[in-house]
Design goal:
By secondary structure, this protein is mainly beta. The protein has five helices and 40 strands. A hairpin with a 5-residue loop joins strand 19 and strand 20. The longest helix has 4 residues.
Length: about 500
């Protein structure tokens, strides 16, 4: 669990319109003596890239070994709550709506025992308007079975395959502040993997939320929802279990996005060194093709361990680019492998709009030349100027915050959903924005990438168009609503059941 840490969350905890940052942290393992107690940290966004540490007053300074994190309004009371997937018991913090949180883990019944955590997501699995909780687990580790590993005479981490995989956990939201473990009934418990990053989304456009779990050095899991909250694992069938050559990867983070604007969500999965981070194109009919080499999406990833990732339209030209966080997991790797490095610049690939990705890392400013060992990454507009910035959690180092300083005449639209009969955050809703001949699809997520959370609000680039001709929202467990002729260059809230956008 030392090398799989950790994720971060970007969310507006105090509902003031600014996106705040929650960083996970590790914790001392057995036998380690420290003169301080590491904890997670919540930073309030005060505007203009100034942040204040409010961890203590907010009450979210968990001292567990943090691995994965997600955010959503699970109790539909108008503020976002926080769930942490630890090595050891997990933690659910309920947002009290006044800048503080209450630890309700025990009362809610979601501590998940004492496991090695990984990615985690809220989702409405059965479309009842209540957010359920999917908790990914890594391996069945114990201090008793751990022993020192050496490679070429140097300390090294073991392979996850030296331990048994651990089935994931699915909790049903009972609607009264408590959850029930339905992993067996839902078909999740029958599959033991080495889960790391994950994402919940409707990949087959059938109106319910599916689950994609990236497994480390094992076949990935794709759990297809039958619409009632029961799942069938179909990764081997639909082409997402392995890469083009039928080889399992050390899968790290999973992001989705419609990179080719064909109306279907595609997946990008990061991986270990000497493996290509993989782009899976959604072919429709539930099937995927590995188009990594054909598109150039993984061109620079082979030497590196790649973790946090996203498909984001950084230049607002109407198609989604790729950001990939890099950094090896072993800090002594350069003493036995001269093809990679522990600290590595991150990667930025521009979508050319014709199905190819072009490396623009070196020409994208000094922020892309920072060399650290990066893990979780989050993507949102931190300064509310209309473009997407980046926050990166780095191993054994300070984080990196990248301001997007792109200058062009392209237009944009940021959308936040508010459910009324469906879940309050609109998690799982498909949002389609049409401007001229371009139609873009995005989905509201709770948990994505490398054990992280962002995506409560959606960013769309409109190119030269000064308005969105049409916005369609298909709510999970609800119907589809349409807004017309929405002015560009603004942040809007679309509320279920209303006649138009509310700023």
């Amino acid at each position: 669990m030392e090398y799989i840490a950790s994720g971060l969350a970007l969310f507006d905890y105090d509902n003031d319109g600014d996106v705040d940052i929650y960083f996970l942290n590790g914790a001392p393992l057995k036998g380690t003596q420290l003169d301080y107690v590491p904890r997670n940290a919540l930073y309030r966004n005060d505007g203009k890239f100034h942040f204040t540490d409010v961890t203590q007053q907010a009450g979210v300074g968990d001292t567990g070994h943090g691995l994965g994190v997600t955010v959503a309004d699970y109790d539909n009371d108008g503020d976002q709550d926080l769930y942490i997937n630890n090595f050891g018991p997990n933690v659910l913090y309920r947002n009290d709506g006044n800048g503080t949180f209450t630890d309700v883990t025990k009362a809610a019944g979601v501590d998940n025992g004492s496991k090695v955590g990984a990615g985690v997501c809220f989702l409405d699995a059965d479309g009842d308007g209540l957010l359920d909780l999917y908790v990914s687990n890594y391996v069945q580790f114990s201090y008793q079975t751990h022993h020192l590993h050496l490679r070429q005479g140097l300390p090294a981490f073991p392979s996850p395959l030296e331990y048994k995989g651990d089935p994931d956990t699915l909790y049903r939201n009972n609607g009264d502040g408590t959850f029930t473990d339905i992993s067996q009934a839902a078909g999740i418990h029958a599959h033991a993997g080495t889960g790391m990053g994950m994402i919940c989304c409707d990949y087959d456009n059938d109106g319910d939320t599916d689950v994609f779990v990236g497994n480390d050095v094992m076949a990935n899991f794709m759990f297809q929802n039958d619409g009632t909250g029961k799942f069938e694992e179909v990764g081997m069938y639909n082409g997402t279990a392995f890469d083009l050559g039928g080889i399992p990867h050390g899968s790290m983070g999973i992001s989705d996005g419609d990179y080719d604007n064909d109306g279907r969500l595609d997946f990008f999965v990061t991986s270990y060194s000497r493996e290509w981070a993989t782009l899976y194109r959604n072919l429709g009919n539930g099937l995927f093709a590995d188009v990594t080499r054909a598109t150039g999406a993984g061109r620079l990833t082979y030497p590196h361990v790649t973790c946090g990732n996203a498909m984001v339209d950084f230049d607002h030209d109407g198609d989604r680019d790729l950001f990939i966080a890099c950094g090896h997991l072993e800090d002594n790797i350069e003493q036995r492998d001269d093809t990679t490095t522990y600290r590595t610049p991150n990667i930025l690939m521009m979508n050319d709009g014709a199905g190819k990705f072009l490396d623009i890392t070196q020409s994208s400013g000094p922020g892309m030349r920072v060399k650290k060992s990066s893990r979780g990454a989050g993507f949102d507009d931190l300064d509310n100027d209309g473009d997407v910035d980046v926050v990166i959690l780095n191993s054994c180092d300070t984080p990196t915050i990248l301001e997007n300083t792109t200058q062009n005449k392209n237009h944009w639209l940021t959308i936040r959903l508010e459910g009324t009969t469906t879940n309050r955050d609109g998690v799982g809703a498909h949002v389609r924005v049409v401007a001229g001949k371009t139609s873009q699809l995005e989905e509201v997520h709770s948990g994505c990438g490398y054990q992280s959370h962002w995506g409560s609000r959606l960013d769309f680039g409109l190119g030269t168009h000064r308005q969105a001709d049409r916005i369609e929202v298909r709510w999970i467990g609800g119907g589809t609503e349409t807004w017309h002729n929405v002015r560009a260059d603004q942040r809007i809230r679309l509320t279920e059941g209303t006649a138009g956008p509310k700023s």
